[in-house]
């Protein structure tokens, strides 16, 4: 069985588990996440490989991290995620990518990401729930962070934090690869 098949089955099992645990019907989760009921059915039956945007929307609607949706959920007090288990969820032919490094659920979902953007590339993100905060630390190159239409330059060695409840884009307008580590904190579902 391929890694993609394992990921699809984990996502199917965990979306259904957390939807049931939260007491959401398919229709209720679809409305909260802004995805179709049909898409949720396909995901829960492991018949589709949804986009990262769809997975993020479902995680946000359930109040859990992508890590938990992909089986990196609850464990012992100390959890070590080997480098080979970091999940690459987005990439381009030019070499840009992001990898989910680790995550936790307490008090709300928290995720840690490894990003690389090649020169001239960018990745847009839909708004997250109100109260979501992102922290970035640039380790190489310069990040062009656009939040709610305003560009901010974050050079090597610098960090930034912002409320991620508006449209935002990570970009590389420089001529060398940009690398950063990002943490995302989503408020718990009430």
The count of helical stretches stands at 5
User: Total strand count, please?
Assistant: 10
Run of helices and strands: HHHHHEEEEEEEEEE
State the separation between the terminal residues, measured CA to CA: 38 Å
Largest sheet composition: 6 strands, antiparallel
Structural class designation: alpha+beta
Side by side, the strands of the main sheet go: 1-2-3-10-5-8
- Which residues sit in consecutive blocks of at least 5 with pLDDT less than 50? 72-78
Quick description:
By secondary structure, this protein is an alpha+beta fold. It has helices at residues 3-22, 26-33, 37-44, 52-62, 66-69; strands spanning 87-91, 97-104, 110-117, 122-125, 133-140, 142-147, 150-155, 159-163, 168-171, 178-185.
Name the features.
190 residues, 5 helices, alpha+beta, 4-stranded antiparallel beta sheet, 6-stranded antiparallel beta sheet
Can you give a write-up of this model?
With 190 residues, the chain is α+β, with helices and mostly antiparallel strands. Helix content is 27%, strand content 33%. A six-stranded antiparallel β-sheet has the order 1-2-3-10-5-8. Helix 1 packs across helix 3. It is globular and about 45 Å long. About 4% of the residues have low confidence.
Q: How are the SSEs placed, and which strands pair?
A:
Blueprint: H1 3-22, H2 26-33, H3 37-44, H4 52-62, H5 66-69, E1 87-91, E2 97-104, E3 110-117, E4 122-125, E5 133-140, E6 142-147, E7 150-155, E8 159-163, E9 168-171, E10 178-185
Antiparallel strand pairs: 1-2, 2-3, 3-10, 4-9, 5-8, 5-10, 6-7, 6-9
Helix pairs in contact: 1-3, 2-3, 2-4
